Amino acid sequence: MPAIDCQLHHITACGILIGMTDPMPVIQSLLSGLPIFLLHLACATLAWVAALALYMWITPHDEFALIRAGNDAAAISLGGAAIGLAVPLGFCLAGSVNVWDIMIWGSVTLILQLIAFRAVDFLLGQLSTRIEANERSAAIFLAMMKAAIACITAGAIAS
């Protein structure tokens, strides 16, 4: 039985090329793509932080003050907002062609999360007061609604 020359016959395992002798194409790809990757990552992170800051500024209660005081409901609500803003941005980032895609869809995501807050406030009533009173059930419901809207928004962005 003849031995297999790994330099001539590349062996694949889990889709990864083993025995590749020239790593330069991979390194060149990394060097050419890294600046764009870092730019898109920075823009998406900036959009996420800005949207989260605007969300906290618009909501009637001070999330960080409540969280520092040990309010679980505020932490659940703000965590839901953070995830609700990040998921669609992640999908946008995956399909973006430029920085404007990220910024525009980040704005749309923020608007939809604010609508989610108002819709849950309408359904439950006194949502901000409930969060300030550490009513976890209201905060959990709000966080789940934010996550649901984020999933639907992400799917729409990806389509």
Automatic annotation (TrEMBL):
Q: Which domain of life is it from?
A: Bacteria
Instruction: Give the chief site where it resides.
Output: membrane
Q: Which GO terms describe its cellular component?
A: plasma membrane
Q: Which segments cross the bilayer?
A: 34-58, 70-96, 102-125, 137-158
Coiled-coil stretches: none
Topology versus the membrane? Multi-pass membrane protein
The yes or no answer to whether the keyword Ribonucleoprotein is present is no
Q: Name one Pfam family in it.
A: DUF350
UniProt keywords (A-Z) are: Cell membrane, Membrane, Transmembrane, Transmembrane helix
Where in the cell is the protein located?
Cell membrane
The protein's matches in PANTHER family, at most eight in alphabetical order, are given as:
UPF0719 INNER MEMBRANE PROTEIN YJFL (PTHR40043)
* Family according to the record: Belongs to the UPF0719 family.
Kindly provide the name given to this protein in its UniProt entry: Membrane protein
The organism that produces this protein has a lineage beginning with: Bacteria, Pseudomonadati, Pseudomonadota, Alphaproteobacteria, Sphingomonadales
